[in-house]
Amino acid sequence: MKTLLLGSAVFLVCMTASGQNVPAAKIASAAPIAAAQRALLGQYCVTCHNDKTKIDNFSLQKEDINAVGDRPEVWERVIRKLRAGMMPPPGMPRPPLAKYEGLRDFLETEIDRKAAAHPNPGSIRTASSQPNRIRQRRPRPAGSSDRCLDPAAGGRFGPGF
What angle do CA 27, 32, 37 make, to 5 degrees? Predict the structure, then answer.
């Protein structure tokens, strides 16, 4: 009995101690990384994508690099352009490859972290959530038949497809 009680107490102390240290370490290490990424964005992206020029009707000037996961629709657009190598456009200065990939990886990680913390599986539709409706068939054009779907008639799913 004493062993079980002592083991439980040690377990709780370890869990409490580790739970307090991990987030503090993550916050402390994330701040300089975010600042470096913000500087990179300011130098290579915000020069064109700001509130004044708004090239492609897109501005990163007021976007918060510390809250990437809060606006994934904006940052996923940036990630797509970075993955394709489209930004900065040809003829414009580009960051070194390691910094370029570092920015892309940082943005992806932040979006994934937010998504993992707050999963949203979407709405699940069940048979009881919506009344069953009989689907009405649209009238077919004159001269059409079901031959194209009939395998025996050599249609689309028949021999030779």
Answer: 115
